[in-house]
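User: ok so my PI wants both of these folded by tonight, can you help

Assistant: No problem, let's get them done. Here's the first:
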Amino acid sequence: MTSPHEELLPATRRALLHRIAVAQAAGRAPSLTAAVVRGGRAVWHGARTSVDGHGPDADVQYRIGSITKTFTAVLVLRLRDEGLLDLGDVLEKHLPGTGAGEATIAGLLAHTGGLAAESPAPWWERTPGSLRPELADVLGERPFLHPVGRRHHYSNPGYTLLGALVEEVRGASWEDVLRREVLEPLGLTRTSTRPRPPHAGGWAVHPWADVLLPEPAEDLGRMAPAGQLWSTAGNLARFAAFLAHGDDKVLSAQSVREMRAPAAPAEAADVVDGATYGLGLQIQHRDGRLLVGHSGSLPGFVANLTVAVEDDVAAVVLANCTSGPRLSAVGADLVRIVAEAEPRIPEPWRPLPEVDPSVLELAGPWYWGTNAFVLRLVAEGGVSLEPLAGGGRRSRFRPNGDGTWRGLEGYYAGELLRAVRRPDGSVSHLDLGSFVFTRQPYDQDAPVPGGVDPEGWRGIG
């Protein structure tokens, strides 16, 4: 048995190496490097390369493309947590005159702002950012393609606007704010807007021949917040641990959890694929587990960061080719290999440090009509309510400090739960957003809406 901070078992390490070796060979990547995180720290690194004699280590920089968006989203959530803006604010309130100001900040984070996917021609990823010096050059004459908030439509210009928002509110460049508020506090010393040796070169691999073509590495200028960053497997492993657990130096666990929650309406194809989008994070359901993270690509490079929060396992995969290996599948497989071969060992059960007797008496079965539920006490004065059997509406509730609780998830998110007491202090029923939960199905002594037939339950003879 291993603790989270011990090395992976030899068989697990070999399975991980085999997976990336297949990915590099089948995907014809000049090089591929990967890392696995467990328990908040990197526990494995592997690499494959077409160059004999050595492979890239965890300190070699690759371009990470749209994983940059997750960093930008962290900066915006920091502004929200400081009270400098609200995610429901329209962009115009803080960054006027863009021509796209009716989009909300949350909509831009979740790609529901209705904006175009790309900036006007020429192709921004292979041309200098100096061709688009102003936001108007990024957005073009027709920035909106869809009604605001109605559908998820991935937008690189949307994250350019978020970067400009950060600059406007902070009064400093996006690059400086990112370095000061995220990179330095998390110790990401090998993450930068421009490549620093040692770094990989970007290549295109001919689709029908085993030959290479070098790709340009353009400075994206205004588009930088959407895809500029270079990083390493080691640095992204640290960032993955942050996305799983939070870090109060940068963003609390609660705010990171908010980033990981679905925030975009899913289209039919997304439902079939088990994919959606949060606030700067891609979300997918794969192999029976929920994965969050982001993929990235720019000419010459592909990248992926995948986190399985429940398993406390994450993976980073980087390659220096324009296309080839499907790194999202590789990342998911690396997580699966570790999670299945060495499943997470749960923390020991421990009793609650203290309990309020008035809350303890609420524990146990309750009935909404004829539907049986159970209320349990959880940590920090909270409670949970869930069906006794099968699926259905369930939620955890946090205490408000006045004997009531507020729902945290699902159908009851934000709804008020309170225990209604009789004049003698005994509990009559639970009120949850106007729903009456009683100790017996349709309890005649409780104020069940519509009343209860006075003759009570009966058979049919």
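One down. Here's the second:
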Amino acid sequence: MPTAVLAGDPCYDRILAALPQRDRFRRALGVGPGQRLIVVSSTWAPRSLFGGAGAGGAGEPGADDLLPWLLSRLAAELPADEYRTTAVLHPNIWYGHGPGQVRAWLDNARRAGLEAIPPLDGWRQALIAADCVLGDHSSVTYYAASIGIPVLLGAFPQDDLDPHSPVAALGRTAPRLLPRGSLRAQIDRVIASHAPGRYKELAEQTSSSPGESAALLRRLFYGLMNLPEPEGRPALLDPLPLPPYLPARVTAPIRVLVRQIGSDPPEVTLVRYAVVGDEPDPSEDPAAQVDTAHTVADEETREAGRLRGADLVVRHAAEDDPRLGPPAAWASEALDRYPYSGLVAYVDGRDRCVVGTREGDLVRMSAATDLHGRPDLCDPAVYASALYAWLASGQPLADALPTITVRTGTTAHHVTVELLPPSPPPTGSHASSSASPIRIRSAPARSPFSS
């Protein structure tokens, strides 16, 4: 009696069928034009990426701290508006340790914008949408390579694998992460140097019957039951669903580095980094090429103490939220509550915000849609930071009307700037009486993150 059958791979077949949906999956994950999606993937073995199989050399992360090191470097090195990060972890990691423990381990990274994909649904769509997969010897990493996604191996226990297996071949082919090197530089290099057919031979070993698993399995099951297959009804697999919209949400403090301000036409170029743990202030890097820098704090940040020293305070809520809105009311209250902030911003839509100033100005900032009428997927707090930088440089608010261009990485966001009816000035004892309510903080100055 036969002990094995040729059945194909339903998981791989669903991935292949969904490849044309890549752009939609990227938008569902909040990946906009010019952004790169980095997927961190780990299986559950002791020497997996999540298990901590570090290089362990002098000055390098060892077996107990590889993943924390990696996640902290992702936040520190990857600009928040130029990269989107997600984590795809094996279900046994979630169920073995418990969701609460896993989320605790990922807490700093999640506050910096990382999205933890649920253990059973959505990981295939994330792979299809990815620009690079930072993984190990898991089948997820192998699937990524088989569909042509650039792969960087953060852990790979070659000795644990059959040397003749396809996964072992991936370990001999894909580049390895060097802990001492720049993480961003390695990711960018893997993406830039990737050839579409690099893993063609590995893809051919993923399944000997691509696209045929539904028919093969149905034939097998009906044969085992000694029943004829339904006539005129093709065997089909459920398509991968479009995931819910999951924009990046950064609640950790953000350091904004302003690189250039142009006045004709109005334009601000900036880069933002989430600051978590003990990572150094990015504005103090000599290679940062920064003119000025400021700090943004989300009102829902866990680090409530950062709110008092933030240059810009942000709140995300619906315009008609009865607890907080309307935006004008919140702005007036927030300026009084946070006396050291120069501006406050109420993000009430996926591509818009209302900014309040200490002079009582209320400004609506809205990004232009793309050629298809779709909204800009950039965090609207970026527009508020651009306005802060504009005013801090001494430029008058009127000169930013009616539009300002905000550049993040290679992407230009065209933002309309509209004055709304003025809000009442803050009434507390800390209301500003200075003619220049925005403090100009040059990059070399002492960071608000310093102790």
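Residues 54-63, 429-436, 440-451 have pLDDT under 50 and may be disordered. The longest strand covers residues 254-263. Good luck tonight!
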